[in-house]
């Protein structure tokens, strides 16, 4: 059994990780930390875990965490990088669901996250945990930078076009919408029911923290820097991300759908829908699936891609478990093959 620890088990990402790991046949939950809830039973805070998790929250303690085979960080940005060196030295593997190890350039990291990086040597080693791009590297990794939710939806939507050099990647536009759980569990006026319901608004228009991450991923695929306008929106729903992606074709293409179908045919968690189908966020709720459709409106030179994920699963905890499966040589679908919830 894989002994797993979770640092930061009280947020929405943390409880989603717990929901998946308690049903994973090869995982034993050993440590679940929370400074604010230390001593309290996990199931008393999250009653959906009653009968599945018989552990109390504890203070983050390196000695206890170092006894785990893998440690997940579901913590605020800037937390994991202060503890990871000791855990790696002790032989534990690490999967960070925050942003500490996603941005490779330390100056860019400081620009967007407002702090110096605590361990740039380990940052260089960290593998970006998108299995559809880095499967083999993930299998050999000690530390994984789990992708952000928006970068997952946007990158998976653009990758086939950029890999095949089909679009002008200097002028990409990503119009994305997320449910309020993406803002986290902390109290905020903007995400109160009376503030967020029956309303849609753009945010981070001048620059969102996921922008440099998406540019880094797509630039790595392209082999050069890409130009991207990324505008996220807050939607009056709990879960889900829909990313509508635009690009201008550089050449005539007979069958865009076939290009997508071929690229993702062996990917267990990317579903290219039939021609003319439009993916819905409700079709991936609670699942680790990304569903994608590609369109060429009126046969013109603009390609439109729609990509949907559950931000808490494929965009966070589910992708983290997928990475763990690869790191430990398990069937990569283990524990994350749940059917989406409908209605």
From TrEMBL:
Cell location: Cytoplasm
Q: In which pathway does it act?
A: Amino-acid biosynthesis; L-arginine biosynthesis; N(2)-acetyl-L-ornithine from L-glutamate: step 3/4
Q: What class of enzyme is it?
A: oxidoreductase
- NADP listed as a keyword: yes
- Gene Ontology biological process terms, A to Z: L-arginine biosynthetic process
- Give the EC number(s) under which this enzyme is classified: 1.2.1.38
The record lists the catalysed reaction(s) as: N-acetyl-L-glutamate 5-semialdehyde + phosphate + NADP(+) = N-acetyl-L-glutamyl 5-phosphate + NADPH + H(+)
Q: Where is the active site?
A: 149
Listed under GO cellular component are: cytoplasm
Record-level Gene Ontology MF annotations: N-acetyl-gamma-glutamyl-phosphate reductase activity; NAD binding; NADP+ binding
| UniProt keyword terms in alphabetical order | Amino-acid biosynthesis, Arginine biosynthesis, Cytoplasm, NADP, Oxidoreductase
- A Pfam match is Semialdhyde_dhC_1
Annotated InterPro entries: AGPR, AGPR_dimerisation_dom, AGPR_type-1, NAD(P)-bd_dom_sf, Semialdehyde_DH_NAD-bd
Residues annotated as domain Semialdehyde dehydrogenase NAD-binding: 3-141
HAMAP family assigned: ArgC_type1
Family indicated by similarity: Belongs to the NAGSA dehydrogenase family. Type 1 subfamily.
**PANTHER family for the chain:** N-ACETYL-GAMMA-GLUTAMYL-PHOSPHATE REDUCTASE, CHLOROPLASTIC-RELATED (PTHR32338:SF10), N-ACETYL-GAMMA-GLUTAMYL-PHOSPHATE REDUCTASE, CHLOROPLASTIC-RELATED-RELATED (PTHR32338)
This chain's function reads: Catalyzes the NADPH-dependent reduction of N-acetyl-5-glutamyl phosphate to yield N-acetyl-L-glutamate 5-semialdehyde.
Which protein are we looking at?
Answer: N-acetyl-gamma-glutamyl-phosphate reductase
From which organism does this entry originate? endosymbiont of Galathealinum brachiosum
Q: What is the lineage of its organism?
A: Bacteria, Pseudomonadati, Pseudomonadota, Gammaproteobacteria, sulfur-oxidizing symbionts
């Amino acid at each position: 059994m894989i002994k797993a620890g979770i640092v930061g088990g009280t947020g929405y990402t943390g409880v989603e990780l717990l929901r998946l790991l308690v049903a994973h046949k090869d995982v034993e939950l050993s440590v679940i930390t929370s400074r604010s809830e230390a001593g309290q039973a996990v199931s008393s805070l999250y009653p959906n875990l009653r009968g599945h998790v018989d552990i109390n929250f504890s203070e983050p303690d390196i000695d206890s965490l170092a006894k785990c085979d893998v440690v997940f960080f579901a913590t605020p940005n800037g937390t994991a990088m202060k503890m990871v060196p000791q855990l790696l030295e002790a032989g534990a593997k690490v999967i960070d669901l925050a942003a500490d190890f996603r941005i490779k350039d330390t100056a860019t990291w400081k620009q967007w996250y407002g702090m110096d990086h605590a361990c740039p040597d380990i940052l260089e080693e960290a593998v970006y945990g998108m299995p559809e791009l880095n499967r083999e590297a993930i299998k050999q990794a000690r530390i994984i930078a789990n992708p952000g939710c928006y970068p997952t939806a946007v990158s998976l939507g653009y990758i086939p076009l950029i890999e095949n050099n089909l679009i002008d990647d200097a002028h990409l536009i990503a119009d994305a919408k997320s449910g309020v759980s993406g803002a986290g569990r902390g109290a905020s006026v903007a995400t109160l029911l009376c503030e967020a319901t029956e309303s849609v608004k753009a945010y981070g228009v001048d620059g969102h923290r996921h922008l440099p991450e998406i540019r880094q991923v797509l630039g790595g695929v392209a082999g050069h820097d890409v130009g991207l306008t990324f505008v996220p929106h807050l939607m009056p729903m709990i879960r889900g991300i829909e990313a509508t992606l635009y690009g201008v074709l550089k050449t005539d293409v007979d069958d865009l759908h076939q290009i997508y179908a071929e690229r993702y045919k062996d990917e267990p968690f990317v579903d290219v829908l039939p021609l003319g189908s439009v993916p819905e966020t409700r079709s991936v709720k609670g699942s680790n699936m990304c569903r994608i459709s590609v369109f060429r409106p009126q046969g013109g030179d603009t390609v439109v891609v729609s990509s949907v994920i559950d931000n808490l699963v494929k965009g966070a905890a589910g992708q983290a478990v997928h990475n763990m499966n690869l790191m430990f040589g398990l069937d990569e679908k283990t524990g994350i093959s749940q059917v989406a919830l409908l209605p």
